[in-house]
Input
Amino acid sequence: TVCTGPEGGIPGRTELIPVHTVAYSMDALLDGSATAHCPRFDQAAQKALDTDYVSHYVRANTALMDALPELSGVDADDINKMETKSLMKLITSLRDLRVCQRAHDVPQPHNVTKFDPALEDITNRVIIAKWQNTDMGNLVGGRLLRAVGHRFDMVKDLEMGDDAMVERLHMECNEKGNDSDEDGGCPRKFVLYVGHDTTIFDMRAALGIPITVIPGVVPYVSHIIFELRKTDDNKFYVQVMTGDFTRTAEPVAGPFCENRFYCELDIFERYVEQMVPQNVDAVCGVVRDGTGEYMNSSGKKIHGPSLLKVIVVLLSVAGVLTLGLMAYRWIRSRGTNRAEYQNI
Output
């Protein structure tokens, strides 16, 4: 669903729509749960949607099912013939459209708005079923989590004066001019990834923390911040923080730090090592053909859309619009107590 507001835009409001800067067929880093990048997750998600928790629950909502033809413009017979996956796509697309309409102050009659709670509830169930009940965070978010861990390791080597890393920073990394490499091989003080709501789901699943903060939604400007800190005695610590436009970023505890709000870099890296398979593509059931195209285990190519996939942008913050934010900051710290970590 792409909604940019009334034709011609809204006076006084900037409307920006960023697009993929990496071709879909290569964007496994920020789109790890897509069918092209993890068919195994897609299969598990389908089974999760076919359970009573989703499928039976939705079809039992007769008021919504009866209203879907009018709400969506899809013929009732076609809706009744839909498999669960297609029905969920239709319902969650309607929910996305309603979010967009509300964000742009597009009024709708009561016979539309009265279904908003049901659309939100079902979307939440779909998210929980796919990203939490399948227990595959290590696959869908594994590539990006490993990139963060690897980059932290590179920064540590650079900070400790490793000659090879210093040369790499001054030569190869500067020549690249970007950090699009999946392995995070270039140490930087600040790295920003901009992705989809599914990028947030993927990473939260990989970290082992609740998939959503608010049921059914990823609030605008949702973000996950990874911080690497160095103390005066050359010890390195990691802290993960989450936030969105409704709340300031706060530290979160999880298995990635032995359920603490911060931990030694070694502990974080050990979690990544144990959590993420060495070859995510192989475990996911895809291989690359050498050109960036993905193929499933039978050798059949999995094609992405012919055009770059548009990221829907709905919120303006300080004149800049964004949907999802993933970043880390490298900060030197004089101490590592919890209070100092929380008072950034």
Summary: The CA atoms of residues 52 and 63 lie 18 Å apart. Residues 1-5, 304-344 have pLDDT under 50 and may be disordered.
